[in-house]
Structures are given as structure tokens and as C-alpha cells.
Amino acid sequence: NPYAGLVSHLRAAWLSGRTRPMEYRMAQLEALGRFLDEKKQDILDATAADMGKPSFEAYFTEILLCKNELNDTLNNLSHWMKDEHVDKNLVTQLDSAFIRKDPYGVVLIIAPWNYPIHLLLVPLIGAIAAGNCVVVKPSETSRNTERLVAEMLTCYLDNDCFAVVTAGVQETTRLLENKFDYIFFTGTSSVGRIVMTAAAKHLTPVTLELGGKNPCYVSDTCDVKNVARRVAWGRFFNAGQTCIAPDYVLCSVEMQEKLMPALREAITEFFGSNPQESPDFGRIVGDKQFRRIRALLCSGRVAIGGQTDEKERYIAPTVLADVLPSDPAMQEEIFGPILPIVVVANMDEAIDFINARPRPLAIYAFSCDSKVVKQVLERTSSGGFCGNDTLMHLTLTSLPFGGIGNSGLGKYHGKFTFDTFTHHRSCLHRNMGLETLNTLRYPPYSQQKLGLLTATFEIKRKGMCTLL
Amino acid sequence: NPYVELVSRLRAAWLSGRTRPMEYRVAQLEALGRFLDEKKQDILDATALDMGKPPFEAEFSEILLCKNELHETLNNLSHWVKDEQVDRSLATQLDSAFIRKDPYGVVLIIGSWNYPIHLLLGPLIGAIAAGNCAIIKPSEMTKNTERLVAEVLPGYVDKDCFAVVTADVQETTRLLENKFDYIFFTGTSCSPTVGRIMMTAAAKHLTPMTLEMGGKNPCYVSDTCDVKNVARRVAWGRFFNAGQTCIAPDYVLCSVEMQEKLLPALREAIADFYGPNPQESPDFGRMVGDKHFQRVQALLRSGRVAIGGQTDEKERYIAPTVLVDVQPSDPIMQEEIFGPILPIVVVANMDEAIDFINSLERPLAVYAFSSDDKVVKQVLERTSSGGFCGNDTLMHVTLTSLPFGGIGSSGLGMYHGKFTFDTFTHHRGCLHRNMGLETLNTLRYPPYSQQKLGIVRAASEVKRKGACTLL
């Protein structure tokens, strides 16, 4: 196996204990901070070359949000790492009972191409913070960023403990044959299954950040102009190539009529009369993806946009009206700058529609009526949820980010990333003496011993007092 | 698929929302409590028939520890199900940001045979508390307990939302072809193969899982200890349930001098516990089945029998046994023993013990005995395992506040207490913003500008605080 040597090299470094001390982890994390600062322009240039990512967007997602995760981690690591002392029962009152935060060992992080630095670094930050050695595999689809990571990131980190592997599909399959102690994968559901099946061979725990069709319900009671801007922003950011982008809108036929001019106005405000000339609108990452998304345009009726330019891999910010559930745009995650609107009679129909489909990474609901937002939240299931906006829940390091069902398993961001890469080891440290405390549990057994043992071990039911 | 209808019936019940209200969950949990109270004698009888489990042990592990989990859950459920409000950034100060505790849906719990009620009910309590529907599959190895669960438990819980399935290996494979929203599997003394099969089946549906597996749990005994206490605590942990415990000390590592001291102390402890002929003691169990008996009996050909070694195939009795001068290459060191045999492997010192432990698969538990705290801490620090106990065995699992689970081939995931509730809960990140206040958002929209970027950064950034280590 072409990677066996690399993996055992990292495993030897892991067994040496080098990644365990807090000073070491802090130093590596601070080096990541310097990478983000010193290579900022290179990152902006690479992502621009890869998918026409506007530098504002690249700065926000690839630099700022990463630095937030870094700072949150550096600010709190000493606290997160500490043994967590826990409640004891009567028998263990004199003992030391705590949760030890152990690293897993050698972990693998596989990143996608749409936010190629962010979706590589944010898991990496948690993996390093938790004391692991790491193999990172950037996406081969975002070639320029892949090269940047492979050539430059390694200069900042301890190469005995952290390695970058560049690999295509075949090579990644071989990489996955090796035993890792944790695998963190961001990508599509179909590849997610392959990764989990490979992980199963070694009983390796995994986090899978996958995708789905994120529905966006717009009730009749809303500020149409605000809704249009927030939905357009979420849909067209990074030219639609966002795992939590609003994938399609559900609303009444009346709301569709109102939304259309508002969306048209928002798009013009954002990108001007000809978005192809705007420096603030991205491109599709590759020819294959471009053709896939373009084919989805034969759904419903093009109400806004619809223009494409194959040479630039440009697809205009597009809104499709009167889309049917059977249309091509409703059969797969769009991952492009097309927003289909599917008409439903009312909120109940919208909720049934959402629940008839695989559980998505995000659900969005827009309404001036808080009760409507709460009902959609209550009666659906998704990775995350945002009422009256799109994407924003991802910017809080205090909220766990992850999918459910087809959209993934596991969660991260902030402390959740540290916890993802940490084995929570239950520990009890008892006294070598005080043996009399133990005699009740030993044979020969008796009813009397049982009665006393029960008294010392039992957890009683408290009086009923609901705090809901 | 023979289980398709059952699974869709439960899924329909799930979609109806019936398991969501707290009153419903509390009622189902209280029904489990009544099951444990009213059927206590039946449980003691069934486990006695299945593996000669002494009633004291059955009452402790199958009844008391389950009721503890139940009470812990009932006492705290209203708190656990609540939305958890979280810290907000400057940009989201006026919003509602919280973690919603959503159930997964229809979950599958596969129990094991060694603590057949405990290892089924423990996860079930958390699954119900978290608002799921559940299919539970008791082990087919313990026929009496399996029958008890299948015939009696459904009478206590809502049959539309909770179902018991009895299935052998073939049927379980078919059961696993269905899509579940979470799978909780406890496997005992089986090779990692079974865990791999489970996870591969789960991967087809991207189903998250908890695997509670096993391993060879090492027990290091340093030269500085109270030999008598150590012998009692280790003997207790090894011979409880006739050794059929996933966290039992599997083998001892100590110096040749300590081996010499331990033997008489172990002999005395065993005599104290079970009398001169343990086969006559009502307090010592039996192997669960003929195949297990034969497997464990074959392991006796390792090292030298220093204590015990007697067997009786008719009763599936294996005496509390201690083997000395065991080599790492001996049969008994090749698999999890899961029987009442304690091999002693001699090592020169603590460093050699730690290296030995680290050369094998990571176990479910590591034990270290020493009067010197530093020794215990070093073993903890330099090894990796599911859990750890210093100066005792088994006891760490009796605390509902400690997460119980494996690492590497000993498993993935953790449970007990709130950790079980969390296992069966999807932590959904939620943000509820204002429909108005649009001016707050204008900075993020195109057309982009350096000025906008500067303000966005100020509104969203998390600053690095002054370096101040609290370690």
C-alpha cells in the first residue's frame, strides 16, 4: 500500500507522545494562525483561480471563520483538556472520578473543494487541539488550493506528526485501506457510504459531513424584500456551491408572485444588471459540475437569469418558477446558483413535503410569525435550522454543526471539534486501603449484604418537579 | 425482508409524533421501572437458568444498576430535553441561538447475553428518554431471558413504538438490511468481525452507531501494594458472573516477586468467596453454553495451573482458576477469555507492562494497582483504553456520571446516565433571527468592498484572549 509507510511514520510519532503536551498543541495551532495570516493572499488567489471565489467571500470563510475557530480553541484549550471531575455515589465518595480527554491517535481528514481551506483547517484545528497526529487530504478538484496546501501548509507544521496527501479517487481508496483511529470526511453522501464502509473494516469512528436538498419555507406572513435578500445571499454565495445553501423554496403561489420581483431586485442590487461582469459572483468549479448544473435548468420555467457561459463556467443567478417535484432540479442537490420555487398550498403541505424526503443538512423557515418558524422546526428533522435567515447558524462556534440521516453523522465547530477528536475516557482512582468499604460486595452473598449494598449504590427517584 | 412491515409500522408511529411529549416518555420509562420491580423474581430465575447467575449478582447488575439508570434519567429528563441556549456573536446578539434535542427516529438495540437485561434496558432507557421508537433484540444465547423479554416486556410498553425481536445470526442479518436511524450494539467475547459486520451494514444507510465491544483488559499490579486487598479486588472482578464480564480484568501483569505474593492471597480470596469447593457455592456462576464452556476450557492449556483448573462439562462449571508463567504466545493470551481464568504474565517493571499493553489492541478497560499514586497515574497517562480504574476493578461502570465505551477494537461511542440520552439524541444547531432589522445584514451582501469587510470582521471575529494557562 503506497501510504503504509507514511501512516506508520505518523503512528510512531504518535506513540512517542510528542503531540500530547499542551505547549506542543498550542505551538502547532499558532503556526496554523501564521499560515492563515502569511498566506492569506495565496489563499485568495488560489480559490479565485479554482472557482472564481470573490476575495470578500474567500476572506470571510477561508480566513476569518477559520481564525475564529482557531482563537476559540486557543482561548479555551487549557480548560477543554483538563480532567473533568464528575459526581460520585456514596461508595466512591472518597475516590477520584473524572473524564480524561485522550486523543484517538492518527486521524484522517478528507476535505472537499467548495471551501477548501475552511473545511480542511477547521477539523484539523480540533484534531491538533485534541492531541492527535493527522493526515489531511485536500480535494483534487480545487487544484490550485490543493497545491497550496501540499506545498505550503507542511512548512508550518511538524512534518513528523502532520502530513498532507494529494490523491485522486483511486489513491484515496488505497489510503482508506490503512487503519486510522478517526476519519473525518466532508463530501457527498455516496462517497460517505464508501468511507464508512472502509472505516468499518477497522472499526474506525467517523464524522461524515454530507449534503442534501435544504428546503426553504417562506410563509405568506413575511417581509418579502428581506426574505428575498437573505435567501438570494444564501443561494448565490460561492455561486451556490455551499452545503447549507437554501436548495429550493416552498411557498404559496401568491408568495411566489411576490418573491419574484423581490428576488430580481436583490440579484440586481448584489450583482448588477449583468452578473457575469460582477467581481462578486463566483464560477462553477469544473466543467463536469458546470454541465451537471446547467442540465438542471430544464425544470419549471426560468423566471430570472438562466444564462450560461461554458468557457467561463458561468451560470447566472437563476430562479426557476413552477417547479414540480418530478423535475430534474428536484432530484439531486443543486450545488449551483439556481433557486427552484415549488408551490405548496400551506405550511402543513410544506412540512409534509420536507418530511417525505431525506433529512437535509439545514432547514430554513421564514415568517414574521414566530409560531410558524417554531412549528417548522418542531415538525421536521435536519442537521441544523435557521429561522428568518440562511447560512448564519454556521457562523456560531457555540452551535454544533452536522447532519442527520443522509446528510451526515457527527458534529463539529468550536468545542465540538475538540470533542469529536477526543476519546472521553472514564476514570476512577480508588484507595489501596479502606477495604472494609468493599466487603459488602464480596461473596459469600447474603440478603443482608444486598440490602446494605443497595443502600450505598442506589440512585433514588426524586420528587416530581417538572421545570419545563 | 421479514422485518420490513415491523420497521414501517414503527416508522409510522414515529412520524405520528407520539414518542415526543415528555409525559409519554416518562410514562414509558416508569413502565420499565414496574417491569423491573414486578418481574424481578422472573429475571433472577431466568438468568440463573441461563448461566447460573447468582441472584445477588443478578439483583445488583440486572435490577439495581438498571433502576439507577432509570432514576437518573427520570430525575433529570426535563432538564436534558430542554433547548440549550448558547453563546452568541456580536452579529447574532439579538437572536435566539440554541441546541434542540431531537430524537433520531427508529433505533435498533442489540443486547448481549452476559448481562442480558442490563445491556438491553440500559440503552433502551436512553433511547426512550430521547424520544425514539425502538426495536430491541435480546441475545438468543440466553434463551430464558430472551423468552422473558419477548413475552413480558411488550406488556409494559407501547407496542406501537417499541418492539422486541427474537432472532438468530441469520435473522439478525436480515433485520440489519432495514434502515434504522441509530444502531446500538453490544457484542461480547466475539471477535471484532461481528462489530465490522454491524458497521458495514450500518454504512449502507449511513446509520450512526454505538458499538460496545470487548478486549483483553490488562491488570497491572505494582510491587508496592497491599497484596491482600489487591487479590480480593481482582478476584472479585475476574470471577463475578463466572468471568463473563466485558470489563473483567482479563490478565495480570506483575513482577515475578509479586506473582509469588499474589498467589497465596488469591487462593485465600477465592476460598473466602466460594469456600473450599467453589462448585458447591451458590455464589459462583456457570458458562452460558456448551460452546463457550469448551472454548474457555481449551484456554487452560496455558502456563501452569496454580489455583483451580477443575471443570465439569455437565454443569458447564469451570473453577475459579489462576494460571502462572503464562507466555504472550499461549492460547489464553490470543483472545478475550470471558471465563473464570486469570492468567499472570510476568514483566520486569512498569515500563515493560506499559509497553506490553500498548503492543496489543486497545481494551475496554485498563487496571492498575499501586499504593504509589504516581504509578497509577503513569499507567493511565501512557496507555489508551475505553475506561480506567486504579486500585479496583469494575467499579468505574457503577457511576452514571462516567461515560462508558471503548476505543479502537473495543468499540466506539459511549453511554450511561446522560451520555445514553445524548447518544440517542441529534443535537440540532438552531438560530432564530428577526424578520426585520435588515440593516444588520447589509454589510455581508454584494457589492463587496474593503470597508464592508472591515466592519464584518469586527462584528464576527472571535479574538484571541491574553495567554493565561490555567493548567
TrEMBL record, chain A:
Signal peptide span: none
Residues at the catalytic site: 209, 243
Domain of life according to the entry: Eukaryota
A GO cellular component annotation in the UniProt record: cytoplasm
Gene Ontology molecular function terms on file: 3-chloroallyl aldehyde dehydrogenase activity; aldehyde dehydrogenase (NAD+) activity
Keywords linked to the UniProt accession: NAD, Oxidoreductase
Domain spans labelled Aldehyde dehydrogenase: 18-425
GO biological process: aldehyde metabolic process
PANTHER family given in the database record: ALDEHYDE DEHYDROGENASE, ALDEHYDE DEHYDROGENASE FAMILY 3 MEMBER B1
Entry's family note: Belongs to the aldehyde dehydrogenase family.
Identification of the protein by name: AL3B1 dehydrogenase
Organism, as annotated: Herpetotheres cachinnans (Laughing falcon)
Automatic annotation (TrEMBL), chain B:
PROSITE patterns: ALDEHYDE_DEHYDR_CYS, ALDEHYDE_DEHYDR_GLU
Lineage: Eukaryota, Metazoa, Chordata, Craniata, Vertebrata
Keyword NAD found: yes
GO terms for MF: 3-chloroallyl aldehyde dehydrogenase activity; aldehyde dehydrogenase (NAD+) activity
Domain Aldehyde dehydrogenase: 18-426
Name of the protein in its database record: AL3B1 dehydrogenase
UniProt GO cellular component terms: cytoplasm
Organism in which the protein naturally occurs: Herpetotheres cachinnans (Laughing falcon)
Record's keyword annotation contains Cell membrane: no
GO biological process, one term: aldehyde metabolic process
Keyword set, alphabetical order: NAD, Oxidoreductase
Similarity remark: Belongs to the aldehyde dehydrogenase family.
Active-site positions on this chain: 212, 246
